[in-house]
């Protein structure tokens, strides 16, 4: 029973991290160009990015 | 006929540049043809290599290339040229017309969905132990109440935030004295939350906190899918609008020319119209000789000769010579604008269409509310405590909360539109699918719809071996549709370097020292009784002139498509602006007996009105500017990707490629989608028929509610996915 008192906050905290990570990625415009993101990863980084 | 954008001539990029405060400049280009990582890299590095460019970023999903630079030395037109040189189509466009307004609404729905998902998962962590304890009886009341309070602490703020889209919409509807689907949703959510808090405060067994957030999560998925579909359709429509923002070159009194937006052209201005440009406003020709292609305006395929003093209407394509045009009407007053106004009127009538989901809500809302009211009443009459009666009434509203119904339509539509997209059919209006499924009459335009809209060189026996090869040297230098057809038939190759276009006559050049001419019979020197518009003559030196015949051929599958539509129970008709003979020939070849020729744009729209008055739901398929009012007026409309931009804007769907079969494919998919939606509606009704009596009897527990809601939502979604699995060959 005692375990619950720290396990519950830990789980909720982890869930909250997941939510915040999603909100951050949304704010970071990571979903604005899904096709481009899928293709960009194939390009090497060794050409001068604008 | 030009492809999208190609016939617009050269829109001057300089007009579209936005200037920032710190000497920085910005330009947006619409790039077509970029698909892969290589394209992305080629375009971005290619443009970034130009001096002064600080940023070049291509969005592959929307096809937008955004360029920023900080020097005045570079000509913005160089960017467009650079992208074209790299092998892609590029067109500057006006972001004010096309800006996606940053899709605030979609983003908000997504955040709401994430919050609801987080809450649903974490509340479930407390609900599952409570449910299992109900079976095993191992949980103390104190622990259960604590679990309930923790659930409440998560679910209540989450529901207050994630439920906002529904609460707001329900409030808007109620304040107008109407009820939409969001009313029972909001009521269900609020009652479930209120009831659960009350029960928890009394230390009771049942709390619905998990149902509150799970319900919102499922409904938000449906809402987001629906929003995405509309957003995509709106985007497609806006891109087309943005492409129409082209420029014209105005001749100033001091002899210089300057690029101006079409809206800025005034009567009395003089415009220079180059071969290949579309005439932007109505006017009179004051200098030059040329021919014009009126096919987008009237449907007539044969080029019309233009000379000094002749009045021309906006939308015609200048073919062979440079013209000076004296403007007689503002763009707002021109023939094109008249057509645009008709399109607006037509679109307004379309917005009156009642969507399936709203129709369902119309029956659903009063039904569940009276069921809940009756439940409470009957329990009271049977002598139950008011608390029990109210609880059972609330349970009815909670369990009948249209969770599956909220997914029923959007899930099917998103799958169907993806299916159409695979078949190169672009959906431009959110409810086009619904309307398309109810069509029983198809009206075709001839030029560009039944036919390919561009002449093809006919195979001929007895042509001298090198004739086509030599003629093509001249043909490649011309923009005349017949010359272009010849160049296509001959394949890629060089153009004669000294080729000279003689307006209204043809092209001439020297081949191996001999004068070669390609053009009209009389000019070339051929002796023919009557010169046809579908012929070109070629003569090298003093040799015998050679005749080439052209024909605007039917789309390869026009006949089979017509047959298939007949099989689907469609009446069909041809409405064309072309001459009677040409229409009759094309209609008969496609297997259609009902045709009308020599119609004005207004006649076409009027004809559709008559059909609508007879109770028909007409699908109009057209490509010309002359079809635009009819396209807007029709119950639902389609345009080929080669159509005039105004027509593509007016149409609900756009199909690409040489196949007319896109029309029957689209109808088939739409009908399938409707069948799936109806199944989903029936399923939702069946679910309520089972669940509601259980709730009425007061037997519903949060566990049953959770199982029922999630399983019905999943079933509805799976049924929608069947649409993707069906093979297209079955149609």
General description of the model:
The complex is a heterodimer of chains A (50) and B (731). Chain A has 50 residues and is mainly α. Helices cover 66% and strands 0% of the residues of chain A. The termini of chain A are far apart. Helices cover 50% and strands 17% of the residues of chain B. In chain B, strands 15-27-26-25-16-23-24 form a seven-stranded mixed sheet, with helices on both faces. Residues 1-10 of chain B have low confidence and may be disordered.
What is the structural class of chain B? alpha+beta
Q: Sheet bearing the most strands of chain B, described?
A: 7 strands, mixed
Helix content of chain A: 55-70%
> What percentage of the residues of chain B does DSSP assign to strands (E)?
15-25%
Taking all Cα atoms into account, the compactness measure Rg of chain B is 32 Å
Percent of residues of chain A in beta strands? Answer: under 5%
Helix count of chain A, per DSSP? 2
Low-confidence parts of chain A? none
Distance between the termini of chain B: 31 Å
Average pLDDT across residues of chain B? 81
**Strands ordered across the widest β-sheet of chain B:** 15-27-26-25-16-23-24
**Quaternary structure of the protein:** heterodimer
Query: What's the gyration radius of chain A in Å?
Result: 19 Å
- Biggest interface: chains and residue counts? A-B, 26 and 30 residues
- The overall pLDDT of chain A, averaged over residues, is 83
- The counted number of beta strands of chain A is 0
DSSP summary, beta strand count of chain B: 27
What are the defining features of this structure?
heterodimer; A: 50 residues; mainly alpha; 2 helices; 0% strand; elongated; B: 731 residues; alpha+beta; seven-stranded mixed sheet; six-stranded antiparallel sheet; 25 helices; disordered N terminus
């Amino acid at each position: 029973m005692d375990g619950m008192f720290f396990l519950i906050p830990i789980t909720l905290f982890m869930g909250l991290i997941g939510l915040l990570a999603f909100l951050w990625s949304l704010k970071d415009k990571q979903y604005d160009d899904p096709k481009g993101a899928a293709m960009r990863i194939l390009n090497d980084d060794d050409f001068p990015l604008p | 006929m030009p492809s999208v954008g190609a016939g617009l001539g050269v829109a001057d990029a300089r007009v579209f540049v936005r200037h920032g405060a710190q000497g920085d400049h910005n330009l947006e280009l619409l790039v077509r043809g970029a698909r892969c990582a290589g394209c992305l890299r080629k375009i971005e590095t290619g443009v970034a290599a130009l001096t002064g460019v600080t940023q070049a970023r291509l969005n592959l999903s929307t096809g937008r290339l955004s360029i920023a630079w900080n020097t005045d030395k570079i000509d913005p037109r160089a960017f467009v040229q650079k992208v074209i040189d790299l092998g892609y189509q590029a067109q500057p466009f006006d972001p004010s017309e096309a800006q996606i307004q940053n899709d605030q609404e979609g983003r908000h729905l997504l955040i709401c969905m994430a919050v609801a998902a987080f809450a649903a998962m974490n509340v479930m962590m407390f609900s599952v132990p409570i449910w299992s304890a109900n079976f095993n009886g191992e949980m103390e009341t104190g622990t259960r109440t604590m679990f309930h309070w923790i659930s409440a602490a998560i679910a209540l703020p989450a529901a207050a935030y994630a439920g906002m889209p529904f609460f707001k919409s329900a409030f808007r509807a109620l304040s107008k004295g109407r009820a939409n689907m969001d009313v029972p949703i909001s009521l269900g959510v609020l009652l479930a939350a209120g009831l659960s808090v009350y029960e928890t405060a009394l230390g009771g067994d049942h709390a619905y906190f998990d149902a509150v957030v799970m319900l919102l999560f499922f409904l938000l998925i449906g809402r987001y899918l629906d929003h995405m579909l509309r957003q995509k359709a709106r985007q497609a429509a806006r891109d087309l609008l943005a492409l129409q923002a082209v420029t014209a070159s105005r001749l100033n009194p001091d002899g210089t020319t300057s690029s101006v937006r079409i809206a800025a052209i005034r009567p009395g201005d003089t415009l220079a119209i180059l071969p290949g440009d579309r005439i932007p406003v109505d006017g009179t020709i004051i200098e030059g000789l040329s021919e014009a292609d009126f096919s987008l305006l009237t449907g007539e395929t044969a080029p019309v000769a233009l000379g000094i003093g002749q009045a021309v209407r906006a939308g015609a394509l200048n073919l062979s010579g440079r013209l000076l045009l004296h403007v007689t009407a503002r763009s707002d007053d021109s023939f094109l604008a008249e057509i645009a106004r008709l399109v607006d009127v037509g679109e307004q009538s379309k917005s009156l269409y009642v969507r399936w989901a709203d129709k369902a809500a119309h029956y659903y809302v009063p039904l569940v509310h009276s069921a809940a009211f009756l439940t409470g009443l009957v329990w009271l009459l049977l002598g139950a405590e008011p608390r029990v009666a109210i609880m059972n009434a609330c349970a009815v509203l909670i369990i009948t909360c249209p969770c599956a119904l909220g997914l029923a339509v959007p899930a099917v539509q998103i799958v169907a539109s993806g299916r159409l997209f695979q078949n190169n059919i672009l959906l431009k209006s959110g409810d086009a699918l619904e309307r398309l499924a109810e069509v029983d009459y198809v009206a075709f335009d001839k030029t560009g719809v039944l036919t390919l809209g561009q002449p093809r060189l006919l195979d001929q026996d007895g042509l001298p071996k090198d004739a086509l090869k030599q003629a093509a040297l001249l043909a490649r230098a011309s923009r005349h549709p017949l010359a272009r057809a010849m160049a296509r038939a001959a394949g890629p190759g060089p153009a004669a370097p000294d080729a000279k276009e003689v307006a209204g006559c043809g092209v001439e050049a020297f081949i191996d020292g001999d004068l070669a001419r390609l053009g009209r019979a009389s000019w070339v020197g051929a002796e023919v009784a009557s010169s046809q518009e579908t012929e070109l003559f070629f003569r090298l030196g003093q040799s015998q002139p050679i005749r080439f015949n052209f024909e605007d051929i039917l789309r390869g599958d026009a006949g089979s498509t017509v047959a298939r539509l007949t099989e689907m129970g469609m009446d069909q008709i041809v409405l064309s602006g072309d001459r009677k003979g040409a229409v009759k020939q094309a209609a008969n070849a496609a297997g259609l007996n009902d045709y009308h020729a020599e119609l004005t744009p207004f006649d076409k729209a009027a004809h559709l009105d008559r059909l609508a008055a007879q109770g028909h739901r007409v699908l109009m398929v057209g490509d010309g500017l002359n079809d635009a009012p009819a396209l807007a007026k029709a119950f639902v409309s389609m345009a080929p990707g080669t159509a005039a931009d105004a027509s593509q804007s007016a149409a609900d769907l756009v199909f690409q490629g040489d196949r007319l079969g896109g029309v029957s494919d689209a109808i088939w998919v739409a009908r399938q989608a409707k069948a799936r939606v109806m199944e989903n509606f029936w399923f939702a009704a069946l679910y309520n028929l089972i669940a509601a009596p259980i709730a009425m009897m007061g037997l519903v527990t949060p566990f049953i509610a959770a199982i029922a809601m999630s399983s019905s939502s999943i079933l509805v979604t799976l049924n929608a996915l069947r649409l993707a699995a069906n093979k297209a060959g079955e149609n």
